[in-house]
Amino acid sequence: MTLIAPSLLSADFLNLEKDIKRFDGIDNLWLHLDIMDGHFVPNLTLGTPVLKNISKISPHKLDAHLMVKNPEDYIEPLSQIGVHNYTFHWEAVTHHDRLIQLAKEKFDSVGISLNPSTKVEEIPKYILAKLDIVLIMTVNPGFGGQSFIEGCVDKIKKLDQMRKENNYHFQIQVDGGVKNTNSKMLIESGANNLVAGSYIFSDPKKDYKKQIQTLRS
Ligand code: DX5
Ligand code: ZN
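^ thats the input. predicted complex w/ zinc ion below
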């Protein structure tokens, strides 16, 4: 079953607990935490005190997506909070292998994220073999509610092909503009893990469980 990771960036920040509780009883769900520093991307989002409180009330695994210039600085605080998956941006780091090693000591799952303009061929094989997640951004990171960039679909297909040929174990996660109108195509292209923000949260009157089902079907 495709894993769905609702992005809390589009949740109601004045009623976060209420919004998170609406996912109770839904399996194969991670809470996607978009962490931005105002440098790697032109936006600021969740800091450690808020994340700590989210972790106290969430029965779901926490998925940290670090859109920051210094992801290494977040290893210790995020591991103390009990984050499950730690994904950093390929473009933000010089010594990728070293960071992956450090993160693997603290997290069950470690991933890299690629901006729309970064080619999958840029990632060396020895790195791909170590990863639990490769996140393909289908918008330029920084904001929720942007339009899906169609040109990124070939990257998902290419990565899926590389995964099959080399027996890599990573999940392909897709983030940005994911909706019921493109989720089927994304799953068929190789995605196993879909992040969705505005699609799930845009209408608070809708049942989140149903919204998630429509992404999976
Ligand atoms: C964008 C974030 C996404 C974002 C997705 O930089 O990484 O997780 O919240 O939001 P939607 O689904 O609205 O594009
Ligand atoms: Zn994200």
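The pocket of zinc ion (ligand 2) is lined by residues 7, 32, 34, 65, 175, 195 (CB under 6 Å).
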